[in-house]
């Protein structure tokens, strides 16, 4: 593990364009006035469409460049997969400028394998579903070139800039129902279908499974048959019914369970290799899932206990409509990692669609602190209306007082 941060982590997630909207110095002033001590800056990100309610300059609705880096990559450090930097030099310089300002600890929020631009450029390295269809938005971490790219991005970023921590998002496979634009289906979907369509059967995954004596072709055939059977007569099912289907398939299919375990081992290996290459002054935090609840992270290859062992923190998005549900998710997450609250950084959304549009933020923080969690981050500076940012500031002052001044 790496050198521990002396004081509690209270960070605001932000995109570089939102920092530039008011300038680096003014942004830091605003963050400090809110009671924030840290900033989690997107340094590698995917495509999107974002409404910026309090933007002063530039577009109110922004379409970020797809799959680019928000710093200056050193191309000689990369192998088969070559990164692309953002086209605007000012955007690329925000990371260095925040570090130079020095008043906030800077954390490099890095989206690794959710990248449609790279998927389109290197389709043979993407996830391949049970029917042989490629998912352009999801690079497959079982592919050696993808593993090396992920390591190279992290090495490059940390060696050049030395952030306080590296926050890794999407170190594994993306779920079926997340990550691409205009996702359409004119039939009722459910969690079971999403899980089965999210499995990767590319050449690297099949080879790794075969090496572990998993009869992967038989697994693929069973899953394909089950999906085709459902698609021939799709019916709406409740969330509980879908979870029952998942559980039933896992209980009766030992080969499928072994394949899922293999996927988790691969993601843990990637994270452990990245951790080994970091400077001692840079910590490593893992966002284990993009799904709710956190317990579903296994679908992406995340093993909470194993990741907590190899990384300094799990940075968990407790994105829930109520404080009670966020606290319940945190309690379950803590059980999964052996009741180690010091390993958890909690991310909360202090506004719509979570926590009763932010009204239950104080209750959520109180409940998480009672579980022993002391590190918090909040998403996202540019997406929240000013009213919600003001409410966040008031809540931080109430919760932490002089600790955040």
What share of residues are in beta strands?
5-15%
Shape: globular
Overall mean pLDDT stands at: 94
Q: What distance lies between the first and last C-alpha atoms, to the nearest angstrom?
A: 29 Å
Sequence stretches where pLDDT stays below 50 over 5 or more residues: none
Helix percent band: 40-55%
Spatial strand sequence of the major β-sheet = 1-2-5-8-9-10-11-12
What kind of sheet is the major sheet?
8 strands, parallel, barrel
Count of helices? 15
Q: Compute the number of strand runs.
A: 12
Secondary-structure element pattern, one letter each: EHHEEEHHEHEEHEHHHHHEHEHEHEH
Radius of gyration: 21 Å
Short description:
This protein is an alpha/beta fold and 405 residues long. The protein has helices at 16-22, 24-34, 89-92, 94-101, 116-121, 144-161, 191-197, 203-211, 216-232, 239-252, 254-277, 304-310, 323-336, 361-370, 386-400, and strands at 10-14, 38-44, 50-51, 61-62, 105-111, 126-128, 134-139, 165-169, 283-287, 313-317, 344-348, 375-378.
What brief labels describe this structure?
405 residues; alpha/beta; 8-stranded parallel β-barrel; 12 strands; 42% helix; Alanine-rich protein
Give your account of this protein's structure.
With 405 residues, the protein is of the alpha/beta class. Helices cover 42% and strands 14% of the residues. It has 15 helices and 12 strands. It has helices at 16-22, 24-34, 89-92, 94-101, 116-121, 144-161, 191-197, 203-211, 216-232, 239-252, 254-277, 304-310, 323-336, 361-370, 386-400, and strands spanning 10-14, 38-44, 50-51, 61-62, 105-111, 126-128, 134-139, 165-169, 283-287, 313-317, 344-348, 375-378. The strands form 3 sheets. An 8-stranded parallel barrel has the order 1-2-5-8-9-10-11-12, surrounded by 5 helices. α13 links the parallel β10 (313-317) and β11 (344-348). The model has no long low-confidence stretch (mean pLDDT 94). It comes from Undibacterium umbellatum. This is Alanine-rich protein.
């Amino acid at each position: 593990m790496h050198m521990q941060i002396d004081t509690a982590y209270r960070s605001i997630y932000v995109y570089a364009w939102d920092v530039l909207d008011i300038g680096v110095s003014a942004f830091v002033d605003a963050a400090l006035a809110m009671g924030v001590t840290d900033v989690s800056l997107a340094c590698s990100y995917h495509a999107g469409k974002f409404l910026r309610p309090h933007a002063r300059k530039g577009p109110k609705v922004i379409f970020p460049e797809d799959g680019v880096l928000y710093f200056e990559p050193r191309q000689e450090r990369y192998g088969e997969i070559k990164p692309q930097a953002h086209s605007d030099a000012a955007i690329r310089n925000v990371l260095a400028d925040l570090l130079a300002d020095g008043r906030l600890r800077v954390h490099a929020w890095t989206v690794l394998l959710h990248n449609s631009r790279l998927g389109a450029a290197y389709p043979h390295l993407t996830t391949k579903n049970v029917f042989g269809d490629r998912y352009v938005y999801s690079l497959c971490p079982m592919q050696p070139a993808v593993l090396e790219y992920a390591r190279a991005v992290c090495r490059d970023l940390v060696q050049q800039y030395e952030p306080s921590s590296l926050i890794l998002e999407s170190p594994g496979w993306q779920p079926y129902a997340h990550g691409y634009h205009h996702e359409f289906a004119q039939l009722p979907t459910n969690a079971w279908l999403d899980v089965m369509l999210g499995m990767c059967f590319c050449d690297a995954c099949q080879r790794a499974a075969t090496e572990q004596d998993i009869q992967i072709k038989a697994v693929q055939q069973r899953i394909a048959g089950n999906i085709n059977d459902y698609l021939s007569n799709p019916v709406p099912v409740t969330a509980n019914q879908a979870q029952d289907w998942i559980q039933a398939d896992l209980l009766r299919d030992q080969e499928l369970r072994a394949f899922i375990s293999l996927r988790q081992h691969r993601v843990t290996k990637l994270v452990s290799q990245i951790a080994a290459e970091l400077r001692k002054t840079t910590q490593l935090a893992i966002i284990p899932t993009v799904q709710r609840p956190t317990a579903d992270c296994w679908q992406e290859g995340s093993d909470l206990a194993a990741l907590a062992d190899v990384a300094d923190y799990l940075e968990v998005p407790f994105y829930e409509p109520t404080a009670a549900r966020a606290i319940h998710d945190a309690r379950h997450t803590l059980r999964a990692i052996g009741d180690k609250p010091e390993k958890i950084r909690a991310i909360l959304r202090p506004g719509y669609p979570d926590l009763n549009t932010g009204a239950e933020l104080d209750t959520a923080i109180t409940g998480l602190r009672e579980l022993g969690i002391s590190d918090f981050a909040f998403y996202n500076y540019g997406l929240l209306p000013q009213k919600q940012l003001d409410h966040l500031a008031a809540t931080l002052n109430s919760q932490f007082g002089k600790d955040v001044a």
